[in-house]
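User: tokens in, sequence out, please.
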């Protein structure tokens, strides 16, 4: 495993609580755009909540590529090891010609202990996740599950349930199946599905509160009568987690800044960044009063190559603040929502509806494109004729951006370093300057004093073939899920292990683990605690 020494801050002191906040895909220019947007609308509020605490920058990357997606980059924050695209807190295969850091080829596909898991196991801290995507999505998944494929929600979701996260608030009701929901209820959780009142009134210690089938709405589209803001979710998580006398670890993600960036939608990017900034303000207010809390804000990567100013906007460098920010400040919905509304709008009403949400007068040429687009449902054209047209999403995005002066280089992730903002009880007790994703993990493990994650990985995610090397074992398939059976013939004991849970059976007796068992098909291996071998001798 990798070992790094980092001393970019004062003497490490144990803190009671750590709040890690990730504005997904928020590059520096996104932050600048949001600040200018806020200044334009509210001249008396020229700064973001983040501004006093920006102390450096962080280089994030995959194990074998400078540009990472959310899975390997947040995975590195959580485990201290860079990983490959799509890998969720899982050790990557070695790629010697391209690896940015040396890797151990024998560790490929190994689940890795995360900061959240270690905080729960070794410090008995409470743990929470807040986000606006669906809960098995890459960033929250990186904190409490393990998979070499970020899209395998069937592997990831049960791990997140059985990792006993004290508070989880975000999107994804359809990904919590009946078995997992029943487990949570049995364990004493308050479980709320699209229940804003239930979420707000909960007074217990453990809760899962999910909204929407998948992701929650963008801030610009959010109906406050149905869905809480990111700042409200953050406040609720802090209130609940604070009841644990041993402290807590909380990850808060502004998930859809990244999604808006993929869509090249500046209004969505800006307003979701400002929603994240409000949540950061909530966290810092708590930390100042509490006196034992560190708050860290850091994106996982950049996205879209957004710039304030574009060659498509003549003389952009001399434009006034009105000319740069007035139009975008008048957009009342994201491009995604405008598309969904226009799909079902009668052609005679399209111009009025578009103006209602954007204050833009549609040209006849653009209207013609909309009527012949692939996904306009009230078109008089045949489906075959419409398939020759452009997607409505592309038409609307291009139209909106033609009325602003933002530039974009891509609809994907970018490789520049990202900002770092840290509030700590003592100003010297925080990293400063330029650091890497590996060093940020080291900072968190230092201030939590949770020991060496590599050593914890070896003990809690050991290969079953090593743990039970002196036993008789076999792997069988049960409804397409592998089951590990281990025997101690002398004592007539049989251990049955199912994947993605924290429960094993010794004969007919249920034994609860404080970590999850992970099965990896590529190695045909169960990864589980070393101590399970001793159970067979009971």
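Assistant: Sequence out:
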């Amino acid at each position: 495993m990798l070992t790094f020494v980092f001393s970019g801050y004062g003497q490490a002191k144990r803190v009671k609580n750590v709040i890690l906040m990730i504005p997904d895909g928020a590059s520096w220019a996104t932050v600048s755009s949001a600040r200018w947007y806020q200044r334009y609308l509210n001249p008396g509020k020229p700064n973001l909540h983040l501004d006093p605490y920006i102390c450096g920058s962080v280089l994030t990357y995959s194990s074998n590529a400078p540009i990472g997606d959310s899975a390997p980059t947040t995975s590195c924050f959580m485990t201290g090891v860079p990983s490959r695209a799509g890998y969720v807190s899982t050790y990557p295969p070695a790629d010697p010609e391209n690896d940015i850091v040396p890797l151990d080829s024998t560790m490929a596909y190994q689940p890795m202990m995360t900061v959240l898991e270690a905080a729960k196991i070794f410090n008995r801290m409470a743990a929470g996740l807040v986000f606006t995507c669906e809960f098995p999505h890459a960033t929250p998944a990186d904190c409490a599950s393990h998979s070499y494929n970020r899209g395998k929600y069937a592997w990831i979701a049960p791990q997140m349930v059985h990792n006993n996260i004290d508070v989880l608030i975000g999107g994804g009701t359809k990904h919590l199946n009946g078995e997992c929901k029943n487990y949570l209820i049995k364990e004493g959780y308050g479980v709320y599905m699209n229940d804003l009142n239930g979420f707000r009134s909960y007074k217990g210690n453990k809760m899962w509160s999910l909204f929407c089938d998948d992701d929650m709405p963008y801030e610009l589209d959010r109906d406050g009568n149905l869905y809480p803001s990111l700042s409200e979710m953050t406040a609720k998580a802090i209130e609940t987690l604070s009841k644990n006398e041993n402290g807590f670890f909380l990850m808060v993600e502004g998930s859809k800044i990244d999604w808006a960036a993929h869509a090249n939608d500046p209004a969505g990017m800006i307003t979701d960044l400002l929603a994240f900034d409000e949540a950061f303000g909530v966290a810092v207010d708590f930390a100042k009063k509490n006196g034992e809390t560190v708050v860290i804000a850091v994106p996982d990567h950049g996205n879209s190559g957004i710039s304030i100013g574009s060659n498509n906007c003549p003389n952009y460098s001399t434009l006034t603040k009105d000319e740069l920010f007035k139009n975008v400040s008048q957009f009342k919905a994201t491009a995604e929502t405008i598309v969904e509304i226009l799909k079902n709008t009668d052609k005679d009403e399209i111009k009025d509806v578009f103006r209602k949400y954007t204050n833009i007068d549609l040209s006849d040429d653009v209207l013609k494109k909309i009527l012949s687009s692939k996904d306009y449902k009230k078109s008089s054209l045949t489906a075959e004729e419409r398939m020759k047209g452009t997607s409505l999403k592309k038409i609307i995005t291009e139209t909106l951006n033609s009325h602003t002066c933002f530039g974009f280089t891509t609809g994907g992730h970018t490789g520049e370093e990202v900002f770092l903002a840290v509030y700590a009880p003592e100003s010297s007790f925080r990293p400063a300057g330029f650091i890497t994703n590996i060093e940020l993990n080291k900072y968190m493990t230092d201030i939590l004093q949770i020991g060496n994650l590599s050593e914890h990985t070896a003990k809690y995610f050991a290969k079953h073939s090593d743990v039970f090397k002196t036993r008789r074992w076999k792997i069988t398939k049960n409804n397409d899920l592998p089951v590990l059976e281990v025997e101690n013939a002398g004592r007539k004991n049989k251990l049955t292990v199912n994947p993605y849970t924290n429960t094993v059976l010794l004969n007919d007796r249920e034994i609860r683990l404080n970590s999850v068992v992970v099965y990896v098909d590529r190695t045909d291996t169960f990864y589980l605690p070393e101590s399970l071998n001793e159970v067979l001798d009971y």
